[in-house]
Amino acid sequence: MRHARRRVVRRGTQLAAVGGLLLGGAMVTTAMASETPGASAVPLSSARTAGKTGAGLVSQLGTARTAGSWIGADGHPVVAVTDEKAAAAVKRAGAEAKMVRHSMNELKSATATLRSAPRVAGTAWVVDYRTNRVVVEADKTVTASDWSRLTQVAAGIGSFVHMERTEGTFTTRLNAALPILSTSGRCSAGFNVTNGQSDFILTAGHCGPPNTIWFADNQGNQQLGTTVNTNFPGNDFSLIQYASGKAGNGAAVVSVGGGKGVLITGVADPTVGQRVFRSGSTSGLHDGQVTALNATVNYPEGTVTGLIQTNVCAEPGDSGGPLFSEGIALGVTSGGSGDCTTGGTTFFQPVTKAMAALGVKLIVSTQNANGQGAAPSAAATQAAVAPNAASPGSSTAVTGTADDTTLLSRLTDTRNVGPGLLVIGGSLIALVATRYIRAEQDRKAYQRYYSATWG
Description:
This protein is an alpha+beta fold. The protein is 27% helix and 32% strand. It has helices at residues 2-23, 25-33, 54-61, 84-92, 104-116, 144-157, 351-358, 396-399, 407-411, 420-440, 442-449; strands at 66-71, 77-81, 96-99, 123-128, 133-138, 161-165, 171-172, 179-182, 185-188, 191-194, 199-203, 213-215, 223-231, 237-242, 253-257, 260-263, 266-267, 275-280, 284-299, 302-310, 322-325, 328-339, 343-350, 361-365, 374-377, 452-453. The strands form 5 sheets. Strands 12-13-14-11-10-24-25 form a 7-stranded antiparallel β-sheet. Strands 18-19-20-23-22-21 form a 6-stranded antiparallel β-barrel. Helix 1 (2-23) crosses helix 2 and helix 1 (2-23) packs antiparallel against helix 10 (420-440). The longest helix is centred in the first third of the chain and has 22 residues, at 2-23. The two termini are 33 Å apart.
């Protein structure tokens, strides 16, 4: 594998050299070297432009005329609409409109009918915005008779309810970023939060009941704190109050392994299609995409609703671990199926909902020159990116740098180059090779450019 990477690097260098011979090698090389890592992130939403994002358009047009929104392959918002006037409004706002048959009201009515049916452990359902249907999954523990009854319920709703069987088992991921241990098992520390007087660890609710005492070591010598509030099932979040009352240094950092971490600068709700990262003490750092929102999962212990569904893998012990993107906190690990060898589905409790219910705020980085210190924050804007477009954690708040000048604009500046067409052609060849190399070394680039030392 190492030799293969070397061949790719040599090939990419050769391609860049060809472009340089055509255009003036020194200029091309300088421009390539000065490209900010992760500059392919495509900011699509902010407080100032919320009305033009997918979520803003859905809110504006209403659930009777829309059926959800997501991030397209090109990084731009897509909104499902049910009539031509709504489609025109979406297009005027600069987003893509997709005509669908069923509105969000119809889709939610279908999930309400499924919830009212007899509960079957080992099942889950979500509204799939991109296919305009409700997808019902059953794991291998669901019996043929239960599956038959649930199929009959689905048939009574309509053909837009799609039934699937999955090989894995839907379980909570008890047993995690950094591990926390108790007599209930092992979990992960999620995010540090505060109520203004005391600091807490926000983690999964199924990790332990109130009064559970947590330690940072197997010998029980380093007491972290005690669970003071928990909500499971129904939701899946809990608060562990620090024994000292304070989170201490590194409170705004999420561990990603290898003694490294990512500065957390805010909190937000995710978008379908968004690239996300999950860290856990069992399986470490992994990435994937948000595939659905407001998922319902019937765990053996009970039903949990309003979850984020992703294709990021997780394993037992990863429970409570953080889900984030570009330094923005999104969720804590609840459960799922599969593992990090074969892949699977993982569900997350949204952080925004948990904090609102608990009356706490996220402890975030103050983004000062040293990258240290923390301050509570109720919310922050999440910049959406095209799937697989950005390096993990490519937030300027983490790097402390910002460069709005793109590679293409630098190369096509007539003050720097001669023939513009040759510049574009040569630089694109070099850029393709560079992007390929970066994708191959994504995780290393994550820790190299966008991490800070943990505690």
